[in-house]
Specification:
The chain is α+β, with helices and mostly antiparallel strands and 398 residues long. It has helices spanning 3-25, 74-77, 91-95, 118-131, 139-152, 232-243, 291-304, 365-379, 383-388, and strands at residues 55-62, 78-80, 98-100, 103-107, 113-116, 164-173, 185-195, 206-212, 248-252, 260-263, 266-272, 276-280, 307-311, 323-328, 332-343, 355-356, 393-396. The strands form two sheets. Strands 1, 2, 3, 4, 5, 6, 7 and 17 form an eight-stranded antiparallel beta sheet that branches. Strands 8-9-10-11-14-15 form a six-stranded mixed β-barrel. Helix 4 packs across helix 5 (139-152) and helix 7 crosses helix 8. Bound molecules: pyridoxal-5'-phosphate (PLP).
Length: 398
């Protein structure tokens, strides 16, 4: 047998041994209901997938200037998934007084089911609530509600490696109001839906296009919180960019029009040749503080020996970097294959030739490494990482 073949065989046998010994040494977690075996989980994408899950969390409370109390009682708040009844006068429909969150529950290598850093989402919704004049949901109530929703829908958590149960917490003004002012009633709701793996059969780079003249967020506005009203105005840009054949829109800052802010609903990173990674700083409040963003920053520093700078990256800087990627709960770490810039006035004219990374499809090594690290931590497939980042994992007890 030639040497490379022998090495490949040895590696294969070694990894087999590793996988079985890992399974043998890991204590099995308490048993959960398995994923519904009649479902073709491989066919699922990031959509509702025609599935109606069993239960949601709903709590409608009267706003109290001193302290609004949200319930943490499972028997009161857990209800069959279904329509909500709202008056046409409520502030969410009239003025967009609303926030949302996005998080995932995974099945892990030891049979457990876990949420990834749910207290981070809770904290972000709390900060958003202050900005939108909604009474904040306490972190413990948020996490307990999320935990309860997963437990009530365990058969909808896809098998290990085949996707996740996506949780969508909402907070909005739901009272009968007419005046242009915050609602006197608030609704906290969490629904869920299983989603498939974003990348089937390996990571694939996406193409981005920035359109000058359209902006997502301005300093002092609400771009730094997950307010529902931030997203509909971006639909038009996203639709136009996709029509021209790009995968996602890239947003530039509203002041200079030169600095990169975000891609669609995900944070942006540029990798430079000297192991320096730059991501747009949160200081202008125009960038959403992603849970994935902060996790990736920590992993790049701790596990990859990178220097991470939270600063400013212009379109010109993109020619100097060797890799770029986006990240968020939906698609975890997404390699960027190319970036093109155009304008609102003449959208069919690209300003300069697109910036292309590698062959435009294959992920760069740092992007791949960060993706693997994050996935291994979420799935619990690496004991050493599981130990070190155990505090990122919230186990849902059966
Ligand atoms: C949700 C979101 C992100 C990603 O945040 P994660 O917490 O990592 O999911 C990034 N940008 C925008 C605009 C978002 O809405």
């Amino acid at each position: 047998m030639c040497l490379p073949l022998r090495i490949a065989l040895a590696l294969f046998l070694w990894s087999l041994g590793w996988a079985t010994s890992l399974a043998a040494t890991l204590p099995r977690a308490a048993e959960h209901v398995s994923a519904d075996p009649s479902i073709d989980w491989d066919s699922f994408s990031f959509s509702l997938n025609g599935v109606k899950t069993d239960s949601m969390w709903v709590d409608r409370v009267v706003v109290d200037e001193d302290e609004t109390v949200y319930s943490d009682a499972v028997d009161k708040c857990l209800a069959p998934l279904g329509p909500l009844s709202l008056s046409p006068t409520c502030t969410v429909l009239n003025y967009g007084q609303s926030l949302f969150e996005g998080m995932k529950a995974f099945r892990r290598a030891d049979g457990s089911i876990a949420l990834f850093r749910p207290e981070r989402n809770a904290l972000r919704m709390k900060q958003g609530a202050e900005r939108m004049c909604l009474p904040p949901v306490p972190v413990e109530v948020f996490v307990r509600a999320a935990d309860s929703v997963v437990r009530a829908n365990t058969k909808w958590v896809p098998p290990l490696g085949k996707g996740a149960l996506y949780l969508r917490p909402l907070l909005f003004g739901s009272g009968e109001d007419l005046g242009v002012k915050p609602s006197h009633e608030s609704t906290f709701c969490i629904y869920c839906s299983p989603v498939g793996n974003y990348f089937k059969g390996g990571l694939k780079a996406i193409s981005l296009q920035a359109v000058r003249g359209f902006s997502r967020a301005a300093p002092g506005g609400s771009g730094g919180v997950k307010a529902g009203g931030n997203y509909a105005p971006a639909f038009l840009v996203q639709r136009q960019v996709k029509k021209r054949g790009y995968d996602e829109a890239l947003f530039l800052d509203a002041v200079s029009g030169e600095a990169i802010e975000e891609a669609g609903a995900s944070n942006f990173f540029a990798v430079f040749p000297n192991n320096t990674i730059v991501t747009p700083a949160l200081s202008s409040e125009t960038i959403l503080p992603g849970v994935t963003r902060s996790s990736v920053i920590e992993l790049a520093q701790q596990e990859c020996g990178c220097k991470v700078v939270e600063g400013r990256i212009t379109v010109d800087d993109l020619r100097e970097c060797c890799e770029a990627f986006c990240c968020g709960t939906g698609a975890s770490v997404t390699p960027v294959g190319s970036v093109s810039v155009t304008s609102r006035e003449s959208p069919d004219l690209e300003e300069q030739p697109s910036i292309v990374y590698g062959d435009g499809t294959t992920p760069g090594p740092m992007t791949q490494r960060l993706y693997d690290l994050l996935l291994n931590i979420q799935m619990g497939t690496d004991q050493k990482l599981s130990k070190k980042y155990g505090h990122w994992i919230h186990i849902v007890e059966p």
